């Protein structure tokens, strides 16, 4: 009764309490290079071009990732308009829904308390929360990882979830390049070990998956013949058998530890020890982690944000194993009291009465205590901070008021493109002087000291706007009004 009623009543209020973590001051700072401004502009181009399939960026086709994640941002634009807030809204919303689905997955594999504690703890995972507040693909990807595994687990008992599973899996493949392949082994494991799912049952769901995913692959391959090679180059960067597995493992360990914080070591221990129980629910985590980590062991080019999809599963394994362990210990004590006779019957009855509430309270205390510690740090590091509008955003937006071509003398191409809404050219150090030798008028975002060092006369340009150490200049020419 404690588990069922109390947690079910508390969960909706808790998820409402999580809103500030994901949405407070979400749009107050300018978008940054690389991915945020980059992806925001790609989503905006879907609206401009009225083409949700063929993505473009800076006047060229974009094929690094499928369109699914950008569709979510485009929907945000349709509702809220194009802004920093709407560029991040789909990711933040995905983060909040990931907590809900993690709770449901935990309830399905273990119980409500485990799911609830996992959701609370996940909200404190530094890089999960950071990426959820950033306009990227990692947290939408994480959401559909959790949804897919949840629906696969539901299919074990009810075949009606096979169609939703196929749709979730298909969209997962349309969110980000290559990574979704790592979920296939665990989905197959869940379905193969199910007593209710037969091969005939998966024909229609499989066909749906093939139509959406393979159809998209085939279309892109026919339109851009080098697409498949580029797909795996982006999705599996630097993968090679000629690499140091030990160094790669150490790097991934550091990334994962820093990304998830205090949940790392207990979670890893729970994955390992849970495997030894030979229970299907723990093998789900083991297979997923093995599948997900294998490409990273073969590559030295992994990044901390690429491990975010594992965060909910590691924390769920942690609280699931804690529950399993404490329940086993309590049951063992009860068995001992029961065997020694009536003398300890009262102790047996007390344990039997308090077992579930005591374990629940123990897990809730652990979850809330360490979540508060980590969440407080995140709150002051990247949530409740002053608004920051970059000089790159200010000058690029000003450049958008002029018709001339825009050059940038720096590594902020996505920001310049997003805020100027122009096709932008990035120049290297030695090219700055060369463009001033052209006859055509142009704009360039650069530094005053760079122009002085190259001995470019002030008569050759006009400073339109300056901000901090950067300036927006226009090459002196007639007829270049905004």
UniProtKB/TrEMBL annotation:
<feature type="transmembrane region" description="Helical">
    <location>
        <begin position="304"/>
        <end position="326"/>
    </location>
</feature>
<feature type="transmembrane region" description="Helical">
    <location>
        <begin position="347"/>
        <end position="370"/>
    </location>
</feature>
<dbReference type="InterPro" id="IPR050297">
    <property type="entry name" value="LipidA_mod_glycosyltrf_83"/>
</dbReference>
<feature type="transmembrane region" description="Helical">
    <location>
        <begin position="282"/>
        <end position="298"/>
    </location>
</feature>
<feature type="transmembrane region" description="Helical">
    <location>
        <begin position="165"/>
        <end position="190"/>
    </location>
</feature>
<keyword id="KW-1133">Transmembrane helix</keyword>
<keyword id="KW-0812">Transmembrane</keyword>
<feature type="transmembrane region" description="Helical">
    <location>
        <begin position="113"/>
        <end position="130"/>
    </location>
</feature>
<dbReference type="Pfam" id="PF13231">
    <property type="entry name" value="PMT_2"/>
</dbReference>
<dbReference type="GO" id="GO:0016763">
    <property type="term" value="F:pentosyltransferase activity"/>
</dbReference>
<feature type="transmembrane region" description="Helical">
    <location>
        <begin position="202"/>
        <end position="219"/>
    </location>
</feature>
<protein>
    <recommendedName>
        <fullName>Glycosyltransferase RgtA/B/C/D-like domain-containing protein</fullName>
    </recommendedName>
</protein>
<dbReference type="GO" id="GO:0009103">
    <property type="term" value="P:lipopolysaccharide biosynthetic process"/>
</dbReference>
<dbReference type="InterPro" id="IPR038731">
    <property type="entry name" value="RgtA/B/C-like"/>
</dbReference>
<keyword id="KW-0472">Membrane</keyword>
<keyword id="KW-1003">Cell membrane</keyword>
<dbReference type="GO" id="GO:0005886">
    <property type="term" value="C:plasma membrane"/>
</dbReference>
<keyword id="KW-0328">Glycosyltransferase</keyword>
<keyword id="KW-0808">Transferase</keyword>
<feature type="domain" description="Glycosyltransferase RgtA/B/C/D-like">
    <location>
        <begin position="64"/>
        <end position="212"/>
    </location>
</feature>
<feature type="transmembrane region" description="Helical">
    <location>
        <begin position="85"/>
        <end position="106"/>
    </location>
</feature>
């Amino acid at each position: 009764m404690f588990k069922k009623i109390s947690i079910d009543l508390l969960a909706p209020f808790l998820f409402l309490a999580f809103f500030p973590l994901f949405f407070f001051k979400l749009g107050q700072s300018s978008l940054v290079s690389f991915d945020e401004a980059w992806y925001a502009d790609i989503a905006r181009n879907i609206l401009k071009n009225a083409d949700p399939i063929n993505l473009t960026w800076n006047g060229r086709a974009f094929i690094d990732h499928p369109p699914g994640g950008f569709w979510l941002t485009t929907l945000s634009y349709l509702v809220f308009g194009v802004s920093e807030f709407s560029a991040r809204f789909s990711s933040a919303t995905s983060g909040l829904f990931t907590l809900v689905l993690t709770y449901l997955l935990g309830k399905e594999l273990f119980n409500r308390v485990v799911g609830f504690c996992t959701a609370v703890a996940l909200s404190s995972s530094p890089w999960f929360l950071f990426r959820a507040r950033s306009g990227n693909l990692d947290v939408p990807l994480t959401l559909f990882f959790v949804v897919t595994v949840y629906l696969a687990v539901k299919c074990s008992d009810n075949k009606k979830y096979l169609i939703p599973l196929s749709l979730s899996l298909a969209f997962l493949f349309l969110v980000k390049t290559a990574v979704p392949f790592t979920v296939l082994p665990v989905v197959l494991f869940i379905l193969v070990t199910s007593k209710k799912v037969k091969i005939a049952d998966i024909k229609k769901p499989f066909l749906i998956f093939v139509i959406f995913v393979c159809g998209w692959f085939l279309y892109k391959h026919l339109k851009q013949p080098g697409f498949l090679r580029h797909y795996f180059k982006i999705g599996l960067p630097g993968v090679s058998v000629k690499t140091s597995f030990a160094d790669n493992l150490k790097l991934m360990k550091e990334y994962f530890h820093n990304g998830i914080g205090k949940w790392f070591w207990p979670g890893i221990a729970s994955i390992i020890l849970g495997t030894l129980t030979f229970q299907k629910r723990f093998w789900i985590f083991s297979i997923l982690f093995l599948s997900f980590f294998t490409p990273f062991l073969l590559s030295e080019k992994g990044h901390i944000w690429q491990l975010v999809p594992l965060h909910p599963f590691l924390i769920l394994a942690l609280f699931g194993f804690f529950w399993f362990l404490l329940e086993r210990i309590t049951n063992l004590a009860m068995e001992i009291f029961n065997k020694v006779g009536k003398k300890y019957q009262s102790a047996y009855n007390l344990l039997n009465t308090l077992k579930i509430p005591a374990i629940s309270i123990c897990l809730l205390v652990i979850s809330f205590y360490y979540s508060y510690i980590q969440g407080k740090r995140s709150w002051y590091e990247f949530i409740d901070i002053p608004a920051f509008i970059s000089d790159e955003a200010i000058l690029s937006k000003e450049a958008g008021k002029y018709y001339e071509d825009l050059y940038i003398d720096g590594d902020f191409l996505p920001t310049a493109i997003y805020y100027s809404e122009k096709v932008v050219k990035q120049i290297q150090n030695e090219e700055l002087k060369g463009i001033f030798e052209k006859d055509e008028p142009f704009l360039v975002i650069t530094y005053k000291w760079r122009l002085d060092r190259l001995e470019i006369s002030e008569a050759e340009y006009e400073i339109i706007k300056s901000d901090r150490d950067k300036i927006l200049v226009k090459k002196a020419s007639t007829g270049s009004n905004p």
